Amino acid sequence: MSYKESSDYSLNRLKDSRSIPLQVLVTSAEWRWVMMWTVLIVAVSALPLLIAWAMTPPGWNFTGILVNPLDGHSYLAKMEQGATGHWLFHLTYTPEPHAGAFLFTFYVGLGHVARLTGLPLVVVFHLARLLAGVGLLLTVYRFIAHITMSIVERRLAFLLIGTASGLGWLGLIFGAFPIDFWVPEAFVHYSLHANPHFPLGLMLMLLVLMQVVWPYTQALLLSRIVMPTLLAILLAIVLPFAVVIVWLLLAALIGRTVLIHKGRLLWSHIWPTLGVVGGSLPVVGYQYWVTITNPILAGWNAQNVTSTPPVMNVILGFGIIGGLALIKIVHIIRQKGRETSEGEWLLCLWVIISIGLLYVPFTLQRRFITGLHIPLAILAAIGLRRWLTQSKRSTLFQQRIVLSVVVVGLLETLLVWGLPILFIKQQTIDSLTTSVLFIQDDEAAAFQWLRDNTKPDDVVLASPRIGMWVPGQTGARAFYGHPFETVAAEDKKAQVEAFYRGDQPSTSPASDYIFYGVSEQAIGRPQYLQELPVVFSSGNVTIYKNQH
């Protein structure tokens, strides 16, 4: 089907509809195409995980986390708390006792799912990730359908969102570290590869926008307020920074409407917007309040700094997609909005607001890059397709240009997805003491002993590598295991290293158990361990009971 034929087909089908707004109709043929690509994208994103599991060398165990193991295992630690029946979150990467709070409720809830189903935490984690990925991709296409009536533009935008990364490889050549290698929340395809809460949050974000901006005309006003409000509350629980973007975006759309219509208020948008803000603001407010009033959580929050990356890393990270989107935005501004749909304005405002938030003086400013690839990719697809159509070049030429853009982005995505696989050998045989993807059989046996013989409040002293796994694998606390979630992390890390070097006989606060394996032996061989009772020993791993 040619570009023109596809556009005519889309428009004719839309004209045939009497009950659905023109820009909303998605044909059954479209949904079949979308479902095919959705299954393919999600399946390919899961392949590196299966390959890593299949390539696990003898004597080793794959931990099930490929993307950002440090944060991935902290999610499993949060799920572990739910699996033991709790709903209040505690920092299990720090030894200090403290009151719990309703934070990370999504992961705590997944832990309850694991408890009820009997499935391992990591299995529930990945099942949730895959389901959220499917839901996100289907929601993405519905969102695109509100922006453009052209099937060609819809499909191109969907493929760019689902598969296209930036020019990160180019940045690596020149010593940069572009965001398409390490900021998954900015991209749909990277989000659904990384964890479940990013794709779920992005899906909720799009659903809220659609419910407010393009409500079903037959729905009662009350339901048009209640539904986006409930979705916004869920969004605030799952991905609170995304709900802030939604607030500002909906406010900007209302402001634009007031300016265009010379002061006339569009209450059909205002009431749902008030519901969205009113419903989710208490959730965000509570999260902020508890992280500044709970002393231990405040210590975590003070370390939790995620600054915006250098501008060049952002530009290269979005690559060709970002460049095409910028051209489209400039074109819209030069045209003063003529022939620009409400959806295209929404995309432009989304880009402008997100970029503005990235440079607000705030310790977590990078979080506002969440989902930015979505509006950029849709604008890029619309701008590219319409420019090609107006160029009057041959259909073959147009198809080659489009294919080139898609393939360049896809190759980078496959590189990002597959990069951990390249380091599997280094993660095991060549790096006995530093592997973060695999644990040795003796370490796995030690973790099982700790799970069977320790209480949730017991503290385990271990190297930073082992400490990363302790809360999620054993249910106990780690003295040190995370640079953010361990309070006073630098001090505790220094204490760990000093203890294993033999420079100090204890830590403050003291630990209940001392883990001593190959990672700890690489730091040092403290003589005073010989004075402590051995409670577990297997191969090169020994666990000592500390005498307080």
Structure report:
- The structure is a single chain.
- With about 550 residues, the chain is mostly helical.
- It folds into two domains: about 5-60 and about 120-420, no CATH class; about 440-545, no CATH class.
- Helices cover about 65% and strands about 5% of the residues.
- The strands form two sheets. The chain has a five-stranded mixed beta sheet with strand order 4-3-5-7-6. A two-stranded antiparallel ribbon has the order 1-2.
- The radius of gyration is 26 Å and the shape is globular.
- The N and C termini lie far apart (about 75 Å).
- About 45% of the residues are buried.
Give structural attributes.
548 residues, mainly alpha, 2 domains, 5-stranded mixed β-sheet, two-stranded antiparallel ribbon, 22 helices, 7 strands, 5% strand, disordered N terminus
